[in-house]
Amino acid sequence: MPDVEVNSTRLYYQQAGNGPDVVLVHAVTSNLAVWVFSGLFDALAGHYRVTAYDLRGHGFSARPASGYTSAVMAEDFRQLHRALGLKPAYLVGHSFGGVVSMHAAALAPECVAGVVLSDSFFPGLKHIEPNFGKMELWNELRQTFGRVGVELGETVDFERLFRETAALPAAAFQQLEEIYGAFGRGWLRQLPLLAATTCGADVMAEAGLTAEVLTRIQQPVVALYDEFSPFLATWNWLKQYLPCCVAEIIPAAKHLAMLDNTAGFTAAVLRHLQRLTAASTASPDIAGIA
To answer: Which residues does 33 contact at the CB level (< 8 Å), separation at least 6?
Structure first.
């Protein structure tokens, strides 16, 4: 099991392929298995040196009590990048993974050649989001947990989700495992482990990634947002205010495009990475490598 100690935290990773570096950054409560399960990891490994890693507190990585803001995790990435000897990398970040990726582009531009976002919500842009805290996926989660007597509330609250899951009686937790099945079981088992950390609060913190900081990011950004995303106001803002942003909608998806529309999402990521790597070969300045 490959791992590396960075920023006083042990991170688990997988790596395959050859070519320009691409790093996959998953969402909060997820882990690198989502990239493997969806097939994106293997699809990219045919063209790039692709690295996927578990964020701190997730998957097989260490679980410190604190340090879950996008700023801290951007530093995790910077040190991971150095430890693995990567060249300036294209980051593909889903949801909070996209926030970490953009924060890394701002704080460690020498490590980031470009960013591909997948339906990311930015705490620093919550003032523009009419749907802040309200997601169809949260409603579905709330309904499922309601079947075992747990009320999660109407708006996204990771702290409450972690706390309530940790307090579940064994029989109720087993019932949820049966509902979510084999793939969802791994996701479910992570939740109570995060209850003793600051993750729930930290991931909703602006942590210095303000709207102004976002507009100063010079690397190319691809904003892939889902057709039924709750964050389309953010999508419109990104394509309007970022200096080098290409925006696209992934059809038939509502926040988990890599699972909701696997073929469409994979094709879009590959197409945009091919465009970005071709542009960087022609003009390194375009990719933020110079």
So the answer is: 59, 186
Which 3 state secondary structure label does DSSP give 195? coil
CA proximity to 120, closest of 238, 24, 29, 216: 238
Please, what are the domains in the chain? 3-131+208-287 (3.40.50.1820), 136-201 (no CATH)
Nearest to 121 by CA among 277, 234, 17, 4: 234
| pLDDT, tens digit (0-9, with 9 covering 90-100), for 137-166 | 899 999 999 999 999 999 999 999 999 999
Question: Hey, CA dihedral for 58, 61, 67, 71, is it positive or negative?
Answer: negative
Q: What is the reported pTM?
A: 0.95
Question: Collapsing DSSP states into helix, strand and coil, what is residue 79?
Answer: helix
pLDDT at 290: 26
41 near 14, Cβ under 8 Å?
yes
d(CA 234, CA 239): 9
Q: Tokens for 152?
A: 């999660």
Please compute Rg for the chain using Cα positions: 18
For 278, residues 6+ apart whose C-beta sits below 8 A from its C-beta are none
CA geometry: angle 83, 89, 93, nearest 5 deg = 100
